Amino acid sequence: MKYVVVSGGVISGIGKGVIASSTGLLFKTMGLKATSIKIDPYMNIDAGTMSPLEHGEVFVLNDGGEVDLDLGNYERYLNVTLTRDHNITTGKVYKQVIEKERRGDYLGKTVQIVPHLTNAIQDWIEKVAHIPVDGDNEVPDVCIIELGGTVGDIESAPFVEALRQFQFRVGPENFALIHVSLVPVIHGEKKTKPTQAAIKDLRSLGLTPDIIACRCSEELDQAAIDKISMFCHVGPNQVLGVHDVNSTYHVPLLLHDQKLMEFFSKRFKLDELKLSSERIAKGQDLWTRWNSITQSHDRSFQKVTIALVGKYTNLQDSYISVVKALEHSALRCELKLEIVWVEASDLEIESSVTNKINYHKAWGSLCSADGILVPGGFGTRGTEGMIAAARWARENLVPYLGICLGFQVGVIDYARHVLNMKTNSIELDETIEDPVIVYMPEVDKINMGGTMRLGIRPAVFQESTENSVLRRLYGSAPTVMERHRHRYEVNPEHIDELEKSGLHFVAKDEKAERMEVFELKNHPYFVGTQYHPEYLSRVLDPSKPLLGLVAAAGGKLESILAATVDHHSDQAKGPVTDF
Ligand SMILES: *[C@@H]1O[C@H](CO)[C@@H](O)[C@H](O)[C@H]1NC(C)=O
Ligand SMILES: *[C@@H]1O[C@H](CO)[C@@H](O)[C@H](O)[C@H]1NC(C)=O
Ligand SMILES: *[C@@H]1O[C@H](CO)[C@@H](O)[C@H](O)[C@H]1NC(C)=O
Q1: Glutamine amidotransferase domain spans which residues (predicted)?
Q2: Which residue from 17, 188, 259, 547 has the least number of CB within 10 angstroms?
């Protein structure tokens, strides 16, 4: 096992995650199996209870683990399936050490940060790095470890010390460090001092950089590279410039051009690994496909606008997986994606009085979008606006995708405006007499934490849904596995009425009791999913419901469907909206 640690100096939030996942991707293009671990120097134990306003989105894993967005980044780039143990936090390690101490595992010895905590960290890393993540049972060859925060913080000190020891535990030929730094441009001049200081800090803690990746708004010139090389005691080939490029998907190309893999081949003696020719061919194929989508992205000029109707539109990080899945879909459709953020509450009728300008602006954006997406979310604020957005899309034949809460508001709109019911979701109005969205029976109403339907579960396509657009996008699969995170569902009492009036529940759970997907007849694309398809989207394998939305919005649904490999039947399919 080779370990590559990616740490950061100077300031946080400069794209350490993208550099780390791009490095992992490059290892994969050489035929290696890559995995990753994120270390977060926080005391929290899991992200489920953390506010999306402060931390951005909660990302859900197959195992139901609620983590933050960085693990999503690795899953998307490396096409791997991670577990909740792939996220190490200070809180988790302390908890483990304290539990061991309580059990008497330390035989009454004094328990200390060094060595007990630092050993626990190293054991955790070694254990998790060996978990197969590729859907087969093979142990990965390389593990990318992203160390959150900046080196030198109090918070990360135990982890830095653990990693310092770890390089000797696994041997120097199996351990490398990429340090991400910042080269600010001030009055047109690139300043290398912050990088020099950061590397000095790093060395004083016993870690030696193998690669210094310099984030810079401009391309790094040879003079700057030479200067950093000189003052930081590394060769010029160990200094990489990572300037702002067209998209984050171009970062692997940038690192590749600067011969990152040639460095690692020598450093890790990769030719001694003797990979099978099949693995090498697979890696090459990945590289070819990655190159071709990024290049076609540069060449595509046809635009597609998607209105994202949400609640935290001031904090766009809360929808990062949805945005990424839209990007993957646009790459596949060769369209330039433009996302218009629409604050749901601005669409509500009250805003036309209290907040006229925003009201008209919001409706203007919604009406001019090619497609509308209402993503998941919690709480009541803005939901009437979301219902209005779903109604607009339904009545005006604008492609619509509702995810989780967006699925539920689609159902509410239909019940209200097609079935003329006076209804709502019990989540949004506790006093409503005839709710069309209810608590799931297994959910504990009082104890909010940990009572959701979480993680990967099947959605089973129902009989005679062969011509469902979504099912065809999934390659006509009879069952799809997707990740869930919800505590409300469609009221079983109203399903018959809804179906009879045309809202077709094409997929349900394995007992056919819980509604998973709706699709509307006689509409170009009106789809809702109770599950969160965005969590399983991959750069080269976009999530199908989102792909359908982008394709329908960009006028490419027919060609995408035609290109979809049908794994499950070879029957001729009817026109798209007829099933
Ligand atoms: C890991 O868990 C901690 C604690 O909940 C959280 O703060 C952090 O954001 C998580 N990180 C990842 C990458 O999931
Ligand atoms: C991603 O990995 C899965 C196996 O886990 C594989 O079936 C699929 O083809 C991979 N996708 C891409 C785009 O490589
Ligand atoms: C960025 O995109 C433009 C066109 O959109 C293209 O001409 C240019 O070559 C791209 N740059 C890189 C570094 O790929």
Answers
A1: 315-542
A2: 188
